[in-house]
Amino acid sequence: MSDYLKPLTSLRFFAAVWVILFSYWPLLQGAAPLWIIARGYLGVDLFFILSGFILCHVYLESFGTGKFQYGQFIVNRLARIYPLHIATLLFTLALVMAAAVNGLTLDSHVASWASLPAQIFMVHAWGLAPEASWNHPSWSISAEWFAYLLFPVFASVTWGLRSRPVVAVALAAAFLTILYWAFEALAGFRLTSATFMWGALRIVPCFALGCAVYLAWRAGAVESKAVALGGVAVSLAVILGAAALMTSDALVVLALGGLILSVGGLATADGKGIMSNRVLVYLGNVSFAMYMVYVPWKWVFTKAAGMILGSEESLPLMWWLGGFVAIIPIAMLAHHVVENPMRNVVRHIGDGVRYRLNYRLQGTSK
Protein backbone atom coordinates (compact mmCIF):
# COMPACT_ATOMS: atom_id res chain seq x y z
CA MET A 1 0.00 0.00 0.00
CA SER A 2 1.21 3.50 -0.76
CA ASP A 3 1.92 6.14 1.86
CA TYR A 4 -1.45 7.66 1.07
CA LEU A 5 -3.11 4.80 2.92
CA LYS A 6 -1.07 5.07 6.12
CA PRO A 7 -3.73 7.08 8.01
CA LEU A 8 -6.38 4.52 7.03
CA THR A 9 -4.12 1.69 8.20
CA SER A 10 -3.88 3.45 11.57
CA LEU A 11 -7.65 3.82 11.64
CA ARG A 12 -7.93 0.02 11.54
CA PHE A 13 -6.35 -0.16 14.98
CA PHE A 14 -9.01 2.10 16.49
CA ALA A 15 -11.73 0.05 14.79
CA ALA A 16 -10.34 -3.12 16.38
CA VAL A 17 -10.13 -1.48 19.83
CA TRP A 18 -13.74 -0.32 19.52
CA VAL A 19 -14.96 -3.85 18.77
CA ILE A 20 -12.86 -5.42 21.53
CA LEU A 21 -14.00 -2.87 24.10
CA PHE A 22 -17.60 -3.73 23.24
CA SER A 23 -16.89 -7.36 24.11
CA TYR A 24 -14.65 -6.80 27.15
CA TRP A 25 -16.44 -3.89 28.85
CA PRO A 26 -19.06 -6.03 30.67
CA LEU A 27 -16.22 -7.94 32.37
CA LEU A 28 -15.00 -4.82 34.20
CA GLN A 29 -16.11 -4.76 37.81
CA GLY A 30 -18.48 -1.86 38.47
CA ALA A 31 -18.38 -0.62 34.87
CA ALA A 32 -21.36 1.53 34.01
CA PRO A 33 -22.89 1.26 30.51
CA LEU A 34 -21.15 3.66 28.14
CA TRP A 35 -23.08 4.65 25.04
CA ILE A 36 -20.12 4.89 22.65
CA ILE A 37 -18.78 1.48 23.73
CA ALA A 38 -22.29 0.06 23.40
CA ARG A 39 -22.04 0.81 19.67
CA GLY A 40 -18.69 -0.98 19.40
CA TYR A 41 -20.20 -3.69 17.20
CA LEU A 42 -20.20 -1.08 14.44
CA GLY A 43 -16.42 -1.26 14.41
CA VAL A 44 -16.93 -4.29 12.15
CA ASP A 45 -18.87 -2.11 9.71
CA LEU A 46 -16.00 0.37 9.81
CA PHE A 47 -13.72 -2.47 8.68
CA PHE A 48 -16.16 -3.31 5.90
CA ILE A 49 -16.21 0.27 4.58
CA LEU A 50 -12.42 0.41 4.75
CA SER A 51 -12.22 -2.79 2.71
CA GLY A 52 -14.28 -1.30 -0.11
CA PHE A 53 -12.19 1.87 -0.08
CA ILE A 54 -8.80 0.14 -0.02
CA LEU A 55 -9.59 -2.51 -2.62
CA CYS A 56 -10.83 0.17 -5.00
CA HIS A 57 -7.66 2.15 -4.34
CA VAL A 58 -5.53 -0.85 -5.26
CA TYR A 59 -7.54 -2.53 -8.03
CA LEU A 60 -10.15 -0.20 -9.56
CA GLU A 61 -7.87 1.36 -12.16
CA SER A 62 -6.62 -2.00 -13.39
CA PHE A 63 -10.21 -3.26 -13.51
CA GLY A 64 -11.38 -0.32 -15.58
CA THR A 65 -8.46 -0.57 -18.00
CA GLY A 66 -8.86 -4.32 -18.53
CA LYS A 67 -5.70 -5.34 -16.68
CA PHE A 68 -7.43 -6.82 -13.64
CA GLN A 69 -6.62 -10.51 -13.03
CA TYR A 70 -9.41 -12.05 -11.00
CA GLY A 71 -7.48 -15.24 -10.23
CA GLN A 72 -4.52 -13.36 -8.81
CA PHE A 73 -6.86 -11.08 -6.88
CA ILE A 74 -8.61 -14.05 -5.23
CA VAL A 75 -5.27 -15.68 -4.35
CA ASN A 76 -4.05 -12.46 -2.76
CA ARG A 77 -7.28 -12.00 -0.81
CA LEU A 78 -7.27 -15.63 0.36
CA ALA A 79 -3.66 -15.26 1.45
CA ARG A 80 -4.63 -12.19 3.44
CA ILE A 81 -7.34 -13.77 5.59
CA TYR A 82 -7.30 -17.57 5.43
CA PRO A 83 -4.09 -18.57 7.29
CA LEU A 84 -4.96 -16.65 10.45
CA HIS A 85 -8.57 -17.81 10.27
CA ILE A 86 -7.49 -21.46 10.17
CA ALA A 87 -4.86 -20.90 12.88
CA THR A 88 -7.39 -19.39 15.29
CA LEU A 89 -9.93 -22.08 14.39
CA LEU A 90 -7.38 -24.80 15.25
CA PHE A 91 -6.45 -22.99 18.45
CA THR A 92 -10.12 -22.78 19.42
CA LEU A 93 -10.48 -26.49 18.70
CA ALA A 94 -7.49 -27.19 20.96
CA LEU A 95 -9.04 -25.05 23.71
CA VAL A 96 -12.33 -26.94 23.44
CA MET A 97 -10.55 -30.28 23.77
CA ALA A 98 -8.38 -29.08 26.68
CA ALA A 99 -11.43 -27.68 28.46
CA ALA A 100 -13.34 -30.95 27.98
CA VAL A 101 -10.43 -32.95 29.46
CA ASN A 102 -10.42 -30.69 32.51
CA GLY A 103 -14.20 -30.62 32.90
CA LEU A 104 -14.54 -26.99 31.86
CA THR A 105 -16.88 -25.25 29.40
CA LEU A 106 -15.67 -22.32 27.33
CA ASP A 107 -19.06 -21.37 25.94
CA SER A 108 -22.31 -23.29 25.54
CA HIS A 109 -22.27 -22.86 21.74
CA VAL A 110 -18.57 -22.83 20.96
CA ALA A 111 -18.21 -26.45 19.78
CA SER A 112 -20.82 -26.87 17.06
CA TRP A 113 -19.41 -29.70 14.99
CA ALA A 114 -22.14 -29.27 12.39
CA SER A 115 -20.84 -25.74 11.78
CA LEU A 116 -17.22 -26.79 11.34
CA PRO A 117 -17.31 -27.46 7.55
CA ALA A 118 -18.76 -23.99 6.92
CA GLN A 119 -16.01 -22.52 9.11
CA ILE A 120 -13.30 -24.36 7.17
CA PHE A 121 -14.62 -23.10 3.81
CA MET A 122 -15.31 -19.58 5.19
CA VAL A 123 -18.99 -19.63 4.30
CA HIS A 124 -20.33 -19.50 7.86
CA ALA A 125 -21.70 -15.97 7.38
CA TRP A 126 -23.67 -17.02 4.32
CA GLY A 127 -26.45 -18.73 6.27
CA LEU A 128 -24.70 -22.09 5.80
CA ALA A 129 -23.77 -22.66 9.47
CA PRO A 130 -26.52 -23.87 11.84
CA GLU A 131 -25.32 -21.67 14.72
CA ALA A 132 -22.68 -19.18 15.83
CA SER A 133 -19.73 -21.17 17.11
CA TRP A 134 -15.97 -21.66 17.31
CA ASN A 135 -14.11 -18.34 16.95
CA HIS A 136 -17.26 -16.29 16.45
CA PRO A 137 -15.64 -13.02 15.20
CA SER A 138 -14.49 -14.93 12.11
CA TRP A 139 -18.02 -14.54 10.71
CA SER A 140 -16.85 -11.14 9.43
CA ILE A 141 -13.96 -12.81 7.58
CA SER A 142 -16.54 -15.02 5.86
CA ALA A 143 -18.46 -11.87 4.94
CA GLU A 144 -15.27 -10.28 3.58
CA TRP A 145 -14.68 -13.39 1.48
CA PHE A 146 -18.18 -13.00 0.04
CA ALA A 147 -17.40 -9.38 -0.94
CA TYR A 148 -14.05 -10.39 -2.42
CA LEU A 149 -15.69 -12.97 -4.67
CA LEU A 150 -18.17 -10.33 -5.85
CA PHE A 151 -15.57 -7.56 -6.24
CA PRO A 152 -15.94 -7.39 -10.05
CA VAL A 153 -19.61 -6.47 -9.52
CA PHE A 154 -18.72 -3.67 -7.08
CA ALA A 155 -15.86 -2.53 -9.30
CA SER A 156 -18.04 -2.45 -12.42
CA VAL A 157 -20.61 -0.17 -10.79
CA THR A 158 -17.92 2.00 -9.19
CA TRP A 159 -15.97 2.37 -12.43
CA GLY A 160 -19.14 3.40 -14.23
CA LEU A 161 -19.63 6.20 -11.68
CA ARG A 162 -15.98 7.27 -11.49
CA SER A 163 -16.69 10.70 -12.98
CA ARG A 164 -19.72 11.25 -10.72
CA PRO A 165 -18.50 10.70 -7.14
CA VAL A 166 -21.32 12.74 -5.61
CA VAL A 167 -23.89 10.54 -7.32
CA ALA A 168 -21.99 7.43 -6.23
CA VAL A 169 -21.96 8.52 -2.57
CA ALA A 170 -25.62 9.53 -2.68
CA LEU A 171 -26.65 6.20 -4.22
CA ALA A 172 -24.56 4.21 -1.72
CA ALA A 173 -26.00 6.17 1.21
CA ALA A 174 -29.55 5.69 -0.05
CA PHE A 175 -28.99 1.98 -0.66
CA LEU A 176 -27.60 1.49 2.84
CA THR A 177 -30.40 3.43 4.52
CA ILE A 178 -33.20 1.68 2.62
CA LEU A 179 -31.66 -1.78 3.11
CA TYR A 180 -31.24 -1.23 6.85
CA TRP A 181 -34.87 -0.14 7.16
CA ALA A 182 -36.25 -2.95 4.97
CA PHE A 183 -34.20 -5.65 6.67
CA GLU A 184 -35.30 -4.64 10.16
CA ALA A 185 -38.93 -4.44 9.04
CA LEU A 186 -38.80 -7.93 7.54
CA ALA A 187 -36.40 -9.75 9.87
CA GLY A 188 -37.33 -8.09 13.15
CA PHE A 189 -33.75 -7.17 14.04
CA ARG A 190 -31.11 -4.78 12.72
CA LEU A 191 -28.83 -5.78 9.88
CA THR A 192 -25.93 -4.39 11.94
CA SER A 193 -26.66 -7.13 14.47
CA ALA A 194 -26.40 -9.88 11.85
CA THR A 195 -23.46 -12.26 12.08
CA PHE A 196 -23.47 -15.90 11.02
CA MET A 197 -26.91 -15.84 9.41
CA TRP A 198 -26.92 -12.60 7.42
CA GLY A 199 -23.32 -11.43 7.69
CA ALA A 200 -22.78 -11.80 3.94
CA LEU A 201 -25.60 -9.32 3.34
CA ARG A 202 -24.39 -6.99 6.09
CA ILE A 203 -21.12 -6.27 4.29
CA VAL A 204 -22.73 -5.38 0.95
CA PRO A 205 -23.96 -1.80 1.69
CA CYS A 206 -20.82 -1.00 3.70
CA PHE A 207 -18.47 -2.27 1.01
CA ALA A 208 -20.43 -0.30 -1.60
CA LEU A 209 -20.19 2.81 0.58
CA GLY A 210 -16.43 2.32 0.84
CA CYS A 211 -16.17 2.13 -2.95
CA ALA A 212 -18.18 5.35 -3.32
CA VAL A 213 -16.17 7.15 -0.64
CA TYR A 214 -13.02 6.17 -2.51
CA LEU A 215 -14.33 7.92 -5.62
CA ALA A 216 -14.93 11.07 -3.56
CA TRP A 217 -11.42 10.87 -2.11
CA ARG A 218 -9.94 10.23 -5.54
CA ALA A 219 -11.78 13.27 -6.93
CA GLY A 220 -10.17 15.49 -4.28
CA ALA A 221 -13.16 16.00 -1.99
CA VAL A 222 -10.74 16.60 0.88
CA GLU A 223 -8.07 18.80 -0.64
CA SER A 224 -6.42 20.33 2.42
CA LYS A 225 -5.40 19.32 5.94
CA ALA A 226 -7.79 21.90 7.40
CA VAL A 227 -10.74 20.42 5.50
CA ALA A 228 -9.66 16.91 6.50
CA LEU A 229 -9.41 17.84 10.19
CA GLY A 230 -12.77 19.57 10.00
CA GLY A 231 -14.26 16.47 8.41
CA VAL A 232 -12.82 14.26 11.14
CA ALA A 233 -14.26 16.55 13.81
CA VAL A 234 -17.72 16.64 12.22
CA SER A 235 -17.77 12.89 11.60
CA LEU A 236 -16.75 12.11 15.18
CA ALA A 237 -19.34 14.57 16.50
CA VAL A 238 -22.08 12.86 14.49
CA ILE A 239 -20.93 9.40 15.62
CA LEU A 240 -20.77 10.43 19.29
CA GLY A 241 -24.05 12.34 19.10
CA ALA A 242 -25.89 9.53 17.34
CA ALA A 243 -24.59 7.02 19.88
CA ALA A 244 -25.57 9.22 22.82
CA LEU A 245 -29.06 9.88 21.43
CA MET A 246 -29.59 6.20 20.55
CA THR A 247 -30.40 7.03 16.93
CA SER A 248 -30.36 4.49 14.11
CA ASP A 249 -27.19 2.64 13.20
CA ALA A 250 -27.51 3.87 9.62
CA LEU A 251 -26.54 7.40 10.66
CA VAL A 252 -23.49 6.15 12.55
CA VAL A 253 -22.36 3.96 9.65
CA LEU A 254 -22.74 6.81 7.16
CA ALA A 255 -20.71 9.02 9.50
CA LEU A 256 -18.05 6.30 9.58
CA GLY A 257 -17.86 6.67 5.80
CA GLY A 258 -17.32 10.40 6.28
CA LEU A 259 -14.63 9.66 8.84
CA ILE A 260 -12.77 7.41 6.39
CA LEU A 261 -12.95 10.09 3.70
CA SER A 262 -11.59 12.71 6.11
CA VAL A 263 -8.84 10.51 7.56
CA GLY A 264 -7.80 9.67 4.00
CA GLY A 265 -7.42 13.42 3.48
CA LEU A 266 -4.82 13.53 6.26
CA ALA A 267 -2.38 11.56 4.13
CA THR A 268 0.69 13.33 2.86
CA ALA A 269 3.02 12.54 -0.02
CA ASP A 270 5.96 12.10 2.38
CA GLY A 271 4.02 9.67 4.57
CA LYS A 272 4.25 11.86 7.68
CA GLY A 273 1.66 13.16 10.11
CA ILE A 274 -0.17 12.12 13.26
CA MET A 275 -2.17 9.31 11.67
CA SER A 276 0.92 8.20 9.73
CA ASN A 277 2.89 7.70 12.93
CA ARG A 278 5.04 4.58 12.70
CA VAL A 279 3.63 3.04 15.88
CA LEU A 280 0.00 3.62 14.87
CA VAL A 281 0.59 2.23 11.39
CA TYR A 282 2.21 -0.87 12.88
CA LEU A 283 -0.72 -1.35 15.25
CA GLY A 284 -3.05 -0.93 12.29
CA ASN A 285 -1.17 -3.69 10.50
CA VAL A 286 -1.67 -6.06 13.45
CA SER A 287 -5.32 -5.05 13.93
CA PHE A 288 -6.57 -8.05 11.95
CA ALA A 289 -4.70 -10.35 14.32
CA MET A 290 -6.09 -8.41 17.30
CA TYR A 291 -9.60 -8.97 16.01
CA MET A 292 -9.04 -12.67 15.38
CA VAL A 293 -7.43 -13.53 18.74
CA TYR A 294 -9.45 -11.48 21.20
CA VAL A 295 -12.21 -14.05 21.81
CA PRO A 296 -9.94 -17.12 22.26
CA TRP A 297 -7.73 -15.05 24.56
CA LYS A 298 -10.83 -13.88 26.44
CA TRP A 299 -11.73 -17.50 27.20
CA VAL A 300 -8.21 -18.28 28.43
CA PHE A 301 -7.92 -15.12 30.48
CA THR A 302 -11.33 -15.29 32.13
CA LYS A 303 -10.89 -18.96 33.04
CA ALA A 304 -7.54 -18.19 34.64
CA ALA A 305 -9.02 -15.19 36.46
CA GLY A 306 -11.90 -17.35 37.67
CA MET A 307 -9.52 -19.88 39.18
CA ILE A 308 -7.56 -17.18 41.00
CA LEU A 309 -10.24 -14.62 41.87
CA GLY A 310 -13.28 -16.86 42.00
CA SER A 311 -15.12 -14.88 39.33
CA GLU A 312 -14.98 -14.81 35.53
CA GLU A 313 -17.59 -12.10 35.02
CA SER A 314 -16.51 -9.28 37.33
CA LEU A 315 -12.83 -8.42 37.18
CA PRO A 316 -10.99 -5.70 39.15
CA LEU A 317 -9.64 -2.85 37.05
CA MET A 318 -6.01 -3.97 36.97
CA TRP A 319 -6.94 -7.54 36.08
CA TRP A 320 -9.31 -6.35 33.39
CA LEU A 321 -6.76 -3.89 31.99
CA GLY A 322 -4.05 -6.54 31.96
CA GLY A 323 -6.26 -8.93 30.02
CA PHE A 324 -7.25 -6.20 27.58
CA VAL A 325 -3.74 -4.87 26.90
CA ALA A 326 -2.33 -8.42 26.55
CA ILE A 327 -4.24 -8.74 23.29
CA ILE A 328 -1.65 -6.56 21.56
CA PRO A 329 1.47 -8.71 22.16
CA ILE A 330 -0.55 -11.85 21.43
CA ALA A 331 -1.71 -10.29 18.16
CA MET A 332 1.86 -9.25 17.33
CA LEU A 333 2.97 -12.86 17.78
CA ALA A 334 0.14 -14.13 15.57
CA HIS A 335 0.92 -11.47 12.96
CA HIS A 336 4.62 -12.30 12.68
CA VAL A 337 4.47 -16.08 13.21
CA VAL A 338 1.30 -16.95 11.26
CA GLU A 339 -0.24 -14.10 9.28
CA ASN A 340 2.77 -12.72 7.40
CA PRO A 341 4.79 -15.88 6.62
CA MET A 342 1.75 -18.00 5.74
CA ARG A 343 0.47 -15.25 3.46
CA ASN A 344 3.53 -15.78 1.27
CA VAL A 345 3.03 -19.56 1.36
CA VAL A 346 -0.59 -19.29 0.19
CA ARG A 347 0.38 -16.87 -2.56
CA HIS A 348 3.10 -19.26 -3.74
CA ILE A 349 0.71 -22.21 -3.80
CA GLY A 350 -2.04 -20.18 -5.46
CA ASP A 351 0.28 -18.84 -8.13
CA GLY A 352 1.46 -22.38 -8.85
CA VAL A 353 -2.11 -23.62 -9.26
CA ARG A 354 -2.96 -20.69 -11.53
CA TYR A 355 0.12 -21.34 -13.66
CA ARG A 356 -0.73 -25.02 -14.11
CA LEU A 357 -4.36 -24.23 -14.97
CA ASN A 358 -3.32 -21.64 -17.54
CA TYR A 359 -0.80 -24.06 -19.03
CA ARG A 360 -3.45 -26.77 -19.40
CA LEU A 361 -5.98 -24.34 -20.88
CA GLN A 362 -3.44 -23.14 -23.43
CA GLY A 363 -2.60 -26.75 -24.29
CA THR A 364 -6.30 -27.57 -24.73
CA SER A 365 -6.88 -24.57 -26.99
CA LYS A 366 -4.09 -25.77 -29.26
From TrEMBL:
Cellular component terms per the entry's GO annotation: membrane
GO terms of biological process kind: polysaccharide biosynthetic process
Any single Pfam family the record assigns to this protein: Acyl_transf_3
GO molecular function: acyltransferase activity, transferring groups other than amino-acyl groups
Keyword Transferase: yes
Domain Acyltransferase: residue ranges: 10-334
Keywords for this protein: Acyltransferase, Membrane, Transferase, Transmembrane, Transmembrane helix
Top-level taxon of origin: Bacteria
Transmembrane segments: 12-28, 40-60, 81-101, 145-161, 166-183, 195-217, 226-244, 250-267, 279-297, 317-338
UniProt keyword Transmembrane helix present: yes
Protein name per the record: Acyltransferase
